[in-house]
Amino acid sequence: MSEKILTQLSIELGEKLRQQKLWVTCAESCTGGWLAKTISDIAGSSAYFDRSFVTYSNKAKHQMLGVSEAVLQQHGAVSEQVVREMAAGALKAARADLAVSVSGIAGPDGGSEEKPVGTVWFGFAYLTVNGVEVVSRNCCFDGDRNEVRLQAVIYSLKTLLSEIIKN
């Protein structure tokens, strides 16, 4: 069932991107490339998807996306500040029109009282006439590691479709 949902959302996203001649990129941590895989599973996705970034470690986030080491130390990888920098960095590095970033605690370990397992932050960056706009969102998903990651991918696609890409 989840595979069907992912495919449907990816097809819908691809159609919108193609119609508006937009390019999307991803900067993923906890989803480990699942979002990029889902987007690129659709035949013809090379018309709107060129590259993405799996930046699982803080070092990769800093080196590949330009996330500030100070921000990583002060706020941690699973934070609004980090996903905002990840999305903006991916947008710039990929020369895309839209970028989505994901960083979270999928579990089963790694959670805390402040950031429990299931906490996921999302960043959505896009080009405007005034430069780059970044929107961030936070969710706390239930379930095991796979379920948290799946929900994060679905949320990313749905948010791109409903809030980020203008009709």
UniProtKB/TrEMBL annotation:
Its EC number is 3.5.1.42. The gene is pncC. Gene3D superfamilies: CinA-like. It comes from Photorhabdus namnaonensis. Keywords: Hydrolase. Residues 8-162 form the CinA C-terminal domain. GO terms for molecular function: nicotinamide-nucleotide amidase activity. This is Nicotinamide-nucleotide amidohydrolase PncC. The keyword Hydrolase applies.
